Amino acid sequence: MAFLKRHVATFATAILLGGCSSFGEELWPSLSGDEPAEGGALVATSSEPSTERIIIEPYEDEAAVAGTNVPYGAAPPPAPSGVPGTPLVLGTSNFQPTAVTAAAPTGTYVGQKVVQVRNELAGLRAHLSQRNGTLQQIRSTTVNNAQQYHGLIAAIQARLQVGTTPGNPILVSQWQTAQQQLNNVGNDVANLNSLANQVAGDSAMAAYILESTRAAYSLSGAIDEDHRQLAILEDEVNRSVVMVDRLLNELSEDISRQSSYLSIERSNLTILSVAVKNGELYGPSLANRAFASPPIHAQLAGAGQTARLATPAPAAGRRPLVVIRFDRPDVDYSQALYTAVRSALDRRPNAIFDLVAVASTKGNTAEAARNTSASKKNAEGVLRALRDMGLPADRLNLKATQSATAESNEVHIYVR
Prior knowledge:
Shape: flat
Number of domains: 2
Number of helices: 7
Strand content: 5-15%
Distance between the termini: 16 Å
Largest sheet: 5 strands, mixed
Radius of gyration: 25 Å
Oligomer: single chain
Strand order of the largest sheet: 1-4-7-5-6
């Protein structure tokens, strides 16, 4: 029971955390010295039928974590989001791209290709500007709807606090209006999902433009000015790719937080309808009581003080639930990942998943640095996929390590 309370209590932390535009280095605790275990439960190597190899083995439950522990590196959970009056938390980043650098055409065949790529990049950035405007508008509308909702809830509670008649028609009307405002917040979540699908299309377009830019270097008939312009374009396309990834990450976080917020507030609104019917003030929904549990502490012997105990990072030799090898572009791992994680949750509903970005150290120092950056980006993509599958953010942890034996960058997923 203590184990269950510990994991449910951390859910409030994920709901109230502020949005961030990218994954900072503070989210990547080092696991240096821990070599990834051989023989993962799932291996995805490529999306091509001729090379794809997916192996799923029976998942074996490990010993349960001690009930006095809290997730590794977690902070004490703040006030529960389920308490009426708590504002909705949204991201604050602004994703406004700059104009594409202009240049005079050279008249060569490669120069014509440069003009084509520049026009495609300009179109992509125009789309990103529109997506950013839509995002800011949705956020503004959501905040307005949430403020009106909480204002109505506060008015109903104030009237119930001093006492009123059962089924007061004024309170009934206010409750119905509050329900409509909460439904409007739900519509805003649907709009964010639609926007995320559009940005996913922009991400594919950005990858195509980057590939076209790099391919233009190998075309014959170019002059030095053509390659100079290509280098500038490549830098600008890379910046656009980074912006799209950050936009996708923040959209995923906003959708996850708002979905959790809606679930809790709908429970609170249901219990409030009972309070209006009976003319008596109740507290938050009983379904949310677990989220209000205080952080679990361990007493320091003879000191009368408390200290949080951290769950250790994944140990060396521990078998991962999933191993995804990124040895090809566009590795298709979603379906196999969903199947493996769902099977693990069926066996352990309160499981927490550690996503470890494993970077190959083969090659020189520059290649190792690129592998580290690429492995973290791969782990972010897996994290986003799991959140989109409905796994709560508080049950996902990002970590990073390096391996001298890995042939390519990998992402290992451990269960605890």
